[in-house]
Description:
Membrane topology: Peripheral membrane protein
Helix content: 55-70%
Largest sheet: none
CATH superfamily: Ubiquinol-cytochrome C reductase hinge domain
InterPro entries: Cyt_b-c1_6, Ubol_cytC_Rdtase_hinge_dom, Ubol_cytC_Rdtase_hinge_dom_sf
Structural class: mainly alpha
Family: Belongs to the UQCRH/QCR6 family.
Number of helices: 3
Protein name: Cytochrome b-c1 complex subunit 6
Distance between the termini: 27 Å
Radius of gyration: 15 Å
Low-confidence stretches: none
Subcellular location: Mitochondrion inner membrane
Amino acid sequence: MSEKKYEEGVDPITFFREQCALEKKAINLKEILETCNERVRANPDSGESCHMEMTDYVHFLDHCAMPKAFKHLK
């Protein structure tokens, strides 16, 4: 992964979440979420939700991005 440089004036959390989304684990979690979303769209009456898959994905992004963002706080 080529590391982009953080720029002043850009929201650091968004910047680092975008960087973390390129990591292999994030890509795998996003694929799991997208597969779940496809199942729910195909059968909306199933009662299934993708809450846990979304939670796992967002938790990973936050856990990855927060330490990097805190290093840039002034």
